[in-house]
Write a structure and sequence with these properties.
The relative contact order is 0.08. The chain contains 20 helices and 10 strands. By secondary structure, the chain is of the alpha/beta class. An 8-stranded mixed β-sheet has the order 5-4-3-6-7-8-9-10, sandwiched between helices. It has a two-stranded antiparallel sheet with strand order 1-2. The chain has helices spanning about 5-10, 15-35, 50-65, 70-80, 95-105, 125-135, 150-160, 180-185, 195-205, 230-240, 255-260, 270-280, 295-315, 320-340, 355-365, 370-380, 385-390, 395-410, 415-425, 430-440; strands at about 1-5, 45, 115-120, 140-145, 175, 190, 215-220, 245-250, 265-270, 285-290.
Length: about 450
């Protein structure tokens, strides 16, 4: 028999979030037992379906999703099926503990304890992640540049980040500052949302203020043009030390996140417990986070897909239909797979959220700055004009050149990616790029 008052001691807490969640689950279970006059210290030998239904109602309320009797019955049946039992049977003590252990990691609408998080960069995606955290009750400070003071004042006075979303009112527990020392006071996590090409210099300026033990979750995607480094290399190089770090990618437009569209992303770290903690920090009933240990696979796919989004935009701008964009994206993705494998990443990662998921949304989701840039470029043949008109940072522009250099470094034949890079460098026009891709030497699909 298992006594409720010693259950917590039998679990080894991964972090404060999981420990607090476990305490809540125990309290809910005791409440159900107390309703029936049972002694909280008595051995727990089983849980009946009717008791499980009551417990699940409290559990669903805690994680912040709507309850209905039909949904409750569905969850009850699924729980019993998980343990290979029908709905008329009971759960035994070891199964109760196993159930609690799984429920600990459910996405929650509210954080289990008070936290302060600093977001580096006040752009669209940093603002979206700030909103996810703030809606959970987390205190969020966005660190902006001194020349962005008007946006800081707008956010602090009106809860609107005019730099990113002029028509969206953000939670009141998001504030902004241009003072790094203020932004980093008593923080538990850092979200890095500064564009990759500026990340190294930004982090170097703050390395004396960033606590050694505070984890950084990078949401920046791309390759540094100067060094060919991804963010997992940029962070330790800039800080001149090994900083706890994780890397978030996946099919997620910032506006969709702010609108609470159900969204799933991936967070990768070479330290599994850190990835798990980041997962719990960010997950909500509308923002689902998966974990991975394949940092390079996640970073390569999320960075290089922007190059293919430009190609999809070019096809659209030239007046071609879905056949053309689909061809460019599919064959271009096969070339990205070659880069991935040559750098030691796991090929299967490219089939997941940070790979094919991010690729599909960016190329065909209709809201990508990279695709819009490609479309404008195809119509104007003017790179500078297209960059100005794209509506924000076009990550794929610098990434294309870096990808070409990676191909040379690893001696890879990547005709589509290199043709895109040559087009952005002004060596050929978008129309000539299509002619070249369609007429280079025929061969088998690899």
């Amino acid at each position: 028999p298992i006594k409720l008052n010693i259950m917590i001691d039998e679990w080894k807490p991964v972090d404060s979030n999981s420990l607090n969640a476990r305490k809540e689950l125990i309290a809910d279970f005791k409440h159900i037992a107390g309703e029936e006059g049972e002694n909280e210290g008595d051995p727990v030998t089983s849980i009946r379906p009717d008791q499980l239904l009551k417990f699940l109602k409290l559990y669903v309320d805690r994680i912040g999703i709507p309850w209905s009797e039909n949904f409750g019955k569905y969850l009850t049946e699924k729980t019993f099926q998980h343990f290979d039992k029908n709905k008329d049977m009971i759960l035994q003590p070891t199964e109760i503990v196993a159930m609690f252990d799984e429920f600990v990691y459910a996405p929650r609408a509210k954080a289990t304890h008070d936290l302060t998080v600093c977001v580096f960069g006040g752009g669209a995606f940093g603002t979206a992640i700030a909103s996810v955290l703030a809606k959970k009750g987390t205190t969020v400070r966005i660190l902006m540049r001194s020349e962005e003071m008007e946006h800081v004042e707008s956010l602090n006075n009106n809860n609107i980040n005019t730099m990113a979303f002029k028509d969206i009112v953000l939670p009141k527990n998001i504030t902004a500052t241009t003072d790094p020392a203020v932004a980093l006071t008593n923080v538990s996590w850092i979200i890095h949302a500064v564009p990759v090409q500026f990340s190294s210099g930004f982090l170097k300026n703050l390395k004396h203020l960033i606590p050694l033990e505070i984890p950084i979750i990078s949401v920046s995607k791309g390759i540094c043009l100067k060094t060919l480094h991804f963010m997992n290399e940029i962070i330790p190089s800039a800080l001149e030390r090994d900083q706890p770090a994780a890397f978030l990618c996946g099919p997620s437009f910032a506006k969709g996140i702010l609108s609470d569209d159900p969204t799933a992303v991936l967070v990768a770290s070479t330290v599994p417990s850190l990835a798990r903690s980041a997962q719990c920090l960010l997950s909500t009933p509308n923002f689902r986070v998966y974990t991975s240990s394949d940092v390079y696979g996640v970073e390569i796919g999320s960075a290089l897909k922007n190059v293919l989004a430009i190609a999809a935009g070019i096809a659209n701008g030239l007046g071609y239909g879905a056949n053309t964009a689909t061809f460019l994206v599919t064959r271009g993705w096969a070339e990205i797979r070659k880069i991935c494998v040559s750098m030691g990443a796991q090929e299967r990662t490219l089939s997941g959220l940070s790979g094919i998921g991010d690729l599909m949304l960016t190329c065909f989701g209709g809201m990508s700055r990279n695709a819009e840039f490609g479309k404008i470029l195809a119509k104007t043949n003017d790179v500078e004009q297209a960059l100005r008109m794209a509506g924000g940072v076009v990550e794929g522009f610098a990434t294309a050149k870096a990808a070409r250099e990676l191909a040379q470094k690893h001696k890879l034949e990547l005709p589509i990616i290199i043709a895109i890079a040559d087009t952005l460098a002004g060596m050929i026009t978008p129309a000539e790029m299509m002619c070249y891709i369609m007429t280079f030497t025929l061969g088998p699909e690899d």
